[in-house]
Amino acid sequence: MVEAVETRKPAELDFEAVYNTHYRRVLNLCRYLLNSPDKAEDAAHEAFLRAHARLDSYNPAFPLSTWILKIASNYCIDLLRRKTAEKRIFDLDTSQAYEPPSTASSPLGEVLAAERGRDLRRALGSLTEKYRVPLVLAYYNELSYEEISEILGVERTQVAVLIFRGKEHLRQRLGKGLGKERLQ
Amino acid sequence: MRCPNEFTCALFAEGELPEGKSREIALHAESCEACDRLITALRGESRMLVQCLQDIDLEEAVEVPDFTPKASRSISFATFAFVIIGIALVFRISTGILFGFDLPAELRWLNPREATMSLGVAVNAAFYAVQNANSVFTDTAQSIALMCLAGALLFGMATAFKRSAATGSVIAVLITMGLMSTPSYAVDLRKGPAASIPASETVDDSVFATAGGKMQSIDIAGTVKGDVFAIGDVVTVSGNVDGNLVVIARRVEISGMVGGTVLGAAQTVTVSGRVGRNLITASGTVDINKQAEIGSNSITASSETTVNGSVQRDLFSAGGILDIRGTVGRDVAFAGGQLLLNGSSQVGGNLNARVSKEEHVRVASGATIGGQRNIRLPEPAQRSSRYLTVRFYVWQAIRVLTLFVTGLCLFKLVPALVPMRFVSGMDWLKAGGVGFMTLVAVPVAAIIVGITVIGLPIALVSFVLYLVACYFAKIIVAAFVGRSVMHNSGAVSLLAGIVLVVIAVNLPWIGGLINFVLILLGLGAIALTTYNSIFQRRATVEV
């Protein structure tokens, strides 16, 4: 998703227009991250409140949507951390640390896209936060592994493993009824 | 080249491999059909994931709710002011119902507007600093160095091990204590029947004794070379404690000798032996018997304090009755119900008392007072008239200016405090709770640190930092108030906030309580921001 960079200075921004343009994207991000429509609405609202309050710190050299999505991601991840007593939700189990597992499944075919979007989102929702959050940041926010590692506060390699495993879990969940769509 | 595993292919497909490795895989894929197919499929998968996740925007028609920067859930200035004044009023009225519509004499010293007590503490602290200037400043410098070292250790470890800051700080504290410890800091843990020390026994370490099982009493009849920490029903010291005694019990009896300070909370405290330094207690009754001798000061908060023995230096007491029959080397300071000086009593210095009626101080004819006799009574009519003096307004203007300049410097030096926003009532409630805990916990921790392992200088430094934080607390709240009223966050809004806060804390009848509540909130806000910036720095980086 290539987006025009917002060239106006923050003071000139019509925040209401910004809000109307980006609200759905932010809401969806919060839904994916928090896995709860109600909490997502509150979180989206809070994200815009924070963005509004911090408008002065927005650097117009970068897309506005990226900035707002980052605020929303940070806020949601904060919420997830607060919810879990265990702060280190994105750590790998030490027993399997950094050993990428051999693949039991193969990439999902592109043919899936059209009809299976809903299934895929449902499967994503059934994943634990540990795998769901990196996947959402990578494929919904389209952040690099480096950026994700900064947000989650874990090593880049760990992000790679979490995404790899996350996709594998997705394949397994979708694969049950989709054997023919596997590669080979 | 051997075929790379799927993990490597996935990283390659995502463009997340280093350049050299990436080129290698690209070359391999040109000649290996299986890998090429896998990589193409993986790329397709990524595209598909992006498409499926992002398509939801088009698929679901979500109604966009109206955006109001001042959210319905957020708390407006009017609500904030209403709640603060409400809290102060409810507290004032409920204490009024309980104690009559003015604070009782015993609690008057708690009034935040009452400067006498804090002035007394400040004067004593200053005297102490002057008398011990050399050692205090050397030790303070060492303590600061030590704290920096601990901080560096904590930071280093948190970074190195990527552990949580909590774990890091525990390790750092342990290491620091380990580095600092000498054999005398070792602690002997005792529980139940073994908690008591018989007359024949000598313990070289500090003792941590807790009662348990059937044995609810602890008796220190032997000798302890270090400190004693005791928790039990009845704690008696008939032997010798060379260090300090920290005790929580229903009844405490000291007939032996304590070389250091006694810090105790109990229903009754009876001293008939010798305390080398201070006696600091909060209890129902305190009896300093005829044979008893307190080497330094006695500071008591209790409903009845009787002094038959001798206190070498000052006697501070707050509570119902203070009955002096023995000797006090220097001043007596009392705030509360009644002060009785028996015919046999001797006070070396001044007699300072704050009581509700003059006849509540009774000095028998044989009593000797070396210094002056200052009895302060409540000034009922004068209090309201202060608003009519020019002096009052000049001082308030100076106060506003000082707060404003400090605020500007504070926000310039610590920009992290600027975006401190508390949107919902819940946030404020949390800040209030955390503020209350900080307000209570820091002095307690400072006192404990002051008399135990690491020493007085650290306690002094933390106490000063704590007082500074209490001062900043109001500025933080004023900044919030200013922002809410002026809808911007410049210097002018800070000034406006400070003016409003200063007016609020000077309101008659409830001003003192408002002051207290605002300090709680600000202190909580500072504590929460500090906590967030240390523990959740990454996640709140943009917030």
Q: What does the average pLDDT of chain A come to?
A: 75
CATH second-level architecture of the largest domain in chain A: Orthogonal Bundle
Determine the most extensive contact between two protein chains: A-B, 63 and 46 residues
How many domain units of chain B?
Answer: 4
Number of strands of chain A: 0
Structural features:
heterodimer; A: 184 residues; mainly alpha; Rna Polymerase Sigma Factor, Chain: A; Arc Repressor Mutant, subunit A; 2 domains; 60% helix; disordered N terminus; B: 543 residues; alpha/beta; 4 domains; 13-stranded parallel beta sheet; ten-stranded parallel beta sheet; 15 helices; 23 strands; 48% helix; disordered C terminus
Produce the secondary structure layout.
The complex is a heterodimer of chains A (184) and B (543).
Chain A: H1 15-34, H2 37-53, H3 64-83, H4 112-126, H5 129-139, H6 145-152, H7 156-175
Helix pairs in contact in A: 1-2, 1-3, 1-5, 2-3, 5-7, 6-7
Chain B: H1 6-13, H2 19-31, H3 33-54, H4 56-59, H5 77-99, H6 105-108, H7 115-131, H8 133-161, H9 165-180, E1 187-191, E2 202-203, E3 206-210, E4 217-220, E5 223-224, E6 228-237, E7 240-241, E8 245-254, E9 257-258, E10 262-271, E11 274-275, E12 279-288, E13 293-294, E14 298-307, E15 310-311, E16 315-324, E17 327-328, E18 332-341, E19 346-347, E20 351-354, E21 361-363, E22 368-369, E23 373-376, H10 382-385, H11 390-413, H12 425-451, H13 456-486, H14 491-505, H15 511-535
Parallel strand pairs in B: 1-3, 2-5, 3-6, 4-6, 5-7, 6-8, 7-9, 8-10, 9-11, 10-12, 11-13, 12-14, 13-15, 14-16, 15-17, 16-18, 17-19, 18-20, 18-21, 19-22, 20-23
Helix pairs in contact in B: 1-3, 2-3, 5-15, 8-9, 8-13, 11-13, 11-14, 12-13, 12-15, 13-14, 13-15, 14-15
Give a structural overview.
The complex is a heterodimer of chains A (184) and B (543). Chain A is mainly alpha-helical. Chain A has two domains: 10-83, RNA polymerase sigma factor, region 2, helix turn helix motif (Rna Polymerase Sigma Factor, Chain: A), CATH 1.10.1740; 94-181, Arc Repressor Mutant, subunit A (Orthogonal Bundle), CATH 1.10.10.10. Helices cover 60% and strands 0% of the residues of chain A. Chain A is built from seven helices and no strands. Chain A is globular and about 45 Å long. Chain B folds into four domains: 6-59, no CATH class; 103-181, no CATH class; 183-376; 389-535, no CATH class. Chain B is built from 15 helices and 23 strands. In chain B, strands 1, 3, 4, 6, 8, 10, 12, 14, 16, 18, 20, 21 and 23 form a 13-stranded parallel beta sheet that branches. Classes of the chains: A mainly alpha (184), B alpha/beta (543). Chains A and B meet through helix 1, helix 2, helix 3, helix 4 and helix 5 of A and helix 1, helix 3 and helix 4 of B.
